[in-house]
């Protein structure tokens, strides 16, 4: 595979109705690098949760912005990175309610961790959030 063909970038408005575009791109990528139906379903769920976090937490108070999704296709793995330029969030804080219990919104990160083989969450140097997950693929 040509190194230039390994990356697909998608920039969407930070609105819930555009998250489907990210899922559709992932489905198309599964035609380039075949995935089992279960793996594709898991990855679509993880992607939806990652994008939803950006839409919910990045641009508050009516601010508009974008969410960028980068898909990296490798022979043995698929890497998905979701970034935004918003206020960011700390998953360890937003995942718990005032009583220390997991809040409803805090389940997204747990879902991503359950279906991905590696997960990185942090801030971008230029500001905003970065969530990257990796799924190792069998032959």
What are the salient characteristics of this protein?
alpha+beta; five-stranded antiparallel sheet; 139 residues; Heat Shock Protein 90; 35% helix
In a nutshell, what does this entry contain?
The chain has helices spanning 19-32, 37-57, 91-94, 107-115, and strands at residues 7-13, 66-73, 77-84, 118-123, 129-136. It is α+β, with helices and mostly antiparallel strands and 139 residues long.
Q: Could you describe the largest sheet, including whether it forms a barrel? A: 5 strands, antiparallel
Low-confidence stretches: 93-104
- Terminal CA distance reads 16 Å
Oligomer: single chain
Within the CATH hierarchy, at the fold level, what is the topology?
Heat Shock Protein 90
The strand line-up of the biggest sheet is 1-2-3-5-4
**Helical content (DSSP H or I, runs of 4+):** 25-40%
CATH architecture: 2-Layer Sandwich
Number of helices: 4
How many separate domains? Answer: 1
Gyration radius from CA atoms, angstroms: 15 Å
What's the SSE pattern? EHHEEHHEE
């Amino acid at each position: 595979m040509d190194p230039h063909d390994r990356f697909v970038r998608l920039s969407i408005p930070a609105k819930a109705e555009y998250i489907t575009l990210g899922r559709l791109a992932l489905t198309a990528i599964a035609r380039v690098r075949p995935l089992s139906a279960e793996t594709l379903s898991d990855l679509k769920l993880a992607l939806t949760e990652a994008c939803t976090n950006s839409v919910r937490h990045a641009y508050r108070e009516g601010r508009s912005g974008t969410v960028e999704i980068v898909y990296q296709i490798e022979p043995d793995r698929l890497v998905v990175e979701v970034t935004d330029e918003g206020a960011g969030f700390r998953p360890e804080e937003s995942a718990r309610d005032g009583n220390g219990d997991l809040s409803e919104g805090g389940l997204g990160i747990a879902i991503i961790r359950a279906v991905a083989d590696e997960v990185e969450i942090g801030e971008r140097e230029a500001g905003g959030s970065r969530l990257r997950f990796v799924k190792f693929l069998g032959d």
